[in-house]
Amino acid sequence: MRRNGVHFLVAAGLALTALLPAEALAQGAIKLGELNSYKVFPAFLDPYRKGMELALEQANASGGVFGRKIEIVSRDDNGNPGDAVRVAEELLSRENVQFLMGTFASNVGLAVADFARQKKVLFIAAEPLTDKITWQSGNRYTFRLRASTYMQTAMLIPEAARLKKKRWAIVYPNYEYGQSATAAFKALLKKAQPDVEFVAEQAAPLGKIDGGAVAQALADAKPDAIFSSLFGADLARFVREGNTRGLFKGREVFNLLGGEPEYLDPLKDEAPSGWYVTGYPWYAIGTPEHKRFLDAYQKKYGDHPRLGSVVGYTTVASAVAAMKRAGSLDSEKLVAAMEGLQVDSPFGKITYRALDHQSTMGAYVGRTALKDGRGVMTDFSYADGAKFMPSDDEVRRMRPAQ
Amino acid sequence: MSSLVIQFLNGLAGASTLFLVAVGLSLIFGVTRIVNFAHGSFYMLGIYVAYSIISRAGAGGGLGPAGFWGGILVAAMVVGALGALIEILLLRRIYHAPEMFQLLATFGIVLVIKDYVLWAWGPEDLLGPRAPGLGGSVEILGRPFPEYDLALVFIGPLVLGLLWLLLNRTRWGTLVRAATQDREMAGALGVNQKWLFTAVFALGSALAGLGGALQIPREPAQLFLDMGVIADAFVVVVVGGMGSIPGAALAAFIIGEIKAYCVGIGQVGFLGYSVSLSKLTLVAEFIVMAIVLVMRPWGLLGRQQGAQRIAAGARERPAAGRAMQIAVLAVAGALAVMPFVAQPYTIVLLIDILVYALFAASLQFLMGPAGLVSFGHAAYFGLGAYGAALLVKKAGLPMEFALAGGPLAAALGAVVFGWFCVRLSGVYLAMLTLAFAQIAWSIVYQWDQFTGGSNGLVGVWPAPWLASKTAFYYLAFTLCGCGIWLLRRIVYSPYGCALRAGRDSPLRCDAIGIDLARLQWAAFVLVGTFAGLAGAIYAFSKGSISPETLGIPLSVDALVMVLLGGIHTASGPVVGAAVLTWLQDTVVRNTDYWRALLGAIIIALVLVFPQGIAGFARRRWARSEAA
Amino acid sequence: MTILRGSVLVVSALAKSFGGVQAVREASFAVEAGQLVAMIGPNGAGKTTCFNMVNGQLRPDSGSVRIGGVEVVGRAPRQIWRLGVGRTFQITATFASMTVRENVQMALLSYHHRLASWWLRAAHLYREEAHALLARVGMADQAERPCSVLAYGDLKRVELAMALANAPQLLLMDEPTAGMAPAERIELMALTADIVRERRIAALFTEHDMDVVFAHADRIVVLNRGSVIAEGVPDEVRANAQVRQVYLGSRH
To answer: How far is A215 from chain B (nearest CA, A)?
Structure first.
């Protein structure tokens, strides 16, 4: 009797869900859902939020979309994929948002991407760097803004190969981002310069690098050049120990992400000189589209933008552009609009490739220098993301069939 | 050869740092028996306060070495004073609560301090100045070695020496040692325990602050320090033997050197495979701890602990009374009709609550009736989640089988971990569970091809007939409900009673022929299975899993749920899981400083309900029935 | 000294040293069914060491302990309990979170190999047996009280009931009357002696209180500096010159 009761309840529940009327189109503002690890990675995400709010303000000032204002409902995902999925559920079912965007950590991004696939809802992944989100685990509903680990590593390869250094040492944070960067760097450099040798490899626990021991171990391997994908506190510790121990003397150093203000600024007058980095030299980019962004940002916040600001800004700009192009809030139409969508970003025009849903947003590649007691990028150029992709065939092979 | 010597020195500098963090914790535990989670927060505060002082008065302010070292000492004193304040205002009120309960209060402090630091110093990493006069390097065996690291190599032993003098050559030190060895005796000797505890807590906190402040020239002040440091500090304290200061020094030395050599040796060829030892640094300290505890159950220089007070006040009674039965049925009935009345998101939230309730109930079974505290309970949750996900993704099994296979994987893990753990007791046992959880975590985290590494696995969705939230809700409701009910039923079975008997008096158990170790081992497997079931349901409710499901934060969440609800009531974990999950969900939405608010709420709950919420309710109930 | 074949407990040539100090040397004695044997001696004589070697908590360096004809050296206390050995402790060890009845039920459940059961309610099993044991030690009226609130003398009785749960052939009691008022001591020992005789149990106990010893023990074993210096009925022991000298002599 009891079991039958349960069965009945399950059946009744199923029936009820099936009968629920389609979501009535909410009038008034268009709600967009945004989730991010604000409390776990505040250094990147505070500027990100500011960039996002700036873009939102601009979009609404110019009339919103379909004559309706846009509203962003933002949530903290606690840096945890499980919580992120719950928050995403909440955004969709309680807040009735049209689609999702945001996320910082790769594992959170991947979880929400798969959730979006399951729910058949558009998801614009802002920051997660993992290659998998558009390639191995790519799906129809997920698009990614930031240049991936692979792309940014590839941006450093031309310079690295040009130097013709034979002995390379590598240090990376011991998780997927560092592992992928290292694997991509080794493969790409080996192709460009077959006689290259990798003489040492150090995997440091994320956030807990033993700077002294690692610097010493790398120096002992007597490399000609070093490739690092460290960032944040690990980078600061490594730089200080490396400087004191003379690790960088007479050696070329490449550091992925090393030129991003988030990681360069805290080093103050100890920022390294002459390193090859990817990053964001906001103080020296002369393009009109960046100038417009910079002025608006500084006017609104009285502070300079970080890379996070650009990412936040462009994420919202992409969402707005997608809705305008789709002319509808229907998920399938939005996805169709996202494919091949062109967006005006502070870095210039970017395109979301139809092939793999990866945007062509690039990064600035240059060398670090000390100026007025702080680290800056010099001799930089913009590396367009479109030029640092594997061949289309390779991408097709990696991406699962839809 | 010379590189080995330099790495030895690197190891010593690391060991010195570890020792300074751990020694305060050891001192506090030795005397007050408080498992102080906030120790890492004191360390973090130390480095931030020192940063502020030194960048104003020290190198930046032109006071030179005096400003630098003075700043470090002042920072330590500020943190010490804060420690004293916290002890007087908060901890002093809850010394008589069951052991481990103070842990909950200190966890609240962790949350509050973290948000305070974010508010006061901002989110960006703050890299302090180098030490004036010690900013350069000296040549050792032809290699430049940082002067400051060399200074650290001496500062550790210096602090050890000063502490030794304080403890062995002063009257106060004698009292502290007496209290460490025998609290009751010290009390009987007329020691003013109140102020002794306050002083020890202040000293321990100041040492944590000192350890943090001394890192100023080596690493930036940042918001992750608290959690990173607390785990290290616990490991050192436990490996050395809790309450033993020379033990902490020895443990710090061993761990510091092992880590330095893991990095220094780097790649190692082994049977044709190339193994990167540097990857081991992720868990080196936990591997050391597991080995030490398996060989020496009381740490390297520790002494057998007195009986734990965890059993104090324990009185499992069938919740009896028709009123209570009706209440339980009413809650179950309300949950059963939820999908018809509640908003869709409420159902999502309820699924999380049900999953955590089962998870917390499994921990409560271990902590309450069996009297075995686990700091690494997430291991079984995660193994269940990964087991289920891998069966779907790699073996291609249908979801229904995977849901059964997940708990099995967790049970297997518990068979292995439990076998070692039941040979220990008290905090040592708890720390061994943590070590195993961390080792399991690091394997999942690094084994990219199989477990998806740090990214985890995606696409773990339920079978079509369970795809709707309502259907899945009923699945979770049925499985979690049955699980909790079964666990409760077992508490009153002969097996459950035997576990309680083992908690109450191992000596008597031995004298009536009860093979306690075997029963406790079975308890690990039992709760591992249920925690694994919770994990498997969780995986399918989220569609993806990542190593967080085995991580320390989830283990801590489970502890908080159990303690919040009440450790000796079967309804406790359910109440705790509901309250914590709901609080997190609501508080996060309503304020930017949700962590501080959550911490404050936890502290308030601790003060109002020192027996846990459900424990409190039961007492009130009993009183009103008696009246 | 003769050791009868039929003795329940036969200890022969037992020896144990701690770091060069010979705590027990070549101790031999026996306890027969229905007999209450006291082990006495001045502090440091080796009583506790000897006692703990018999109950399995300590492993002797050499010698043999046979219970009901079975060699028990090297067995754990809980294995020795399976041979039919009941124990009480100097400081009572009971299950504080349970009632008096549940305490005894635990011992009965263990005796009947029912501890692996995960389904039945423990409270419903062996109720009658538990009740009978509690009635025998005079604790029936307190069966439903939690052990944590009992008077010390009552706890001792609960322990005795638990020790009887496995229908023991041997009862080992370490300082059974320690911490009790004199009147209570006599009462408890009289009860114990009754039970031992009626159930034909062999009982060995250590004791400080000479009044208790000489009032109730059938035989007395006297230890000094690890050696058995005398063994016999109370009158023999009382008359033994060596005992008077090293033991009683030191007191008077």
So the answer is: 9
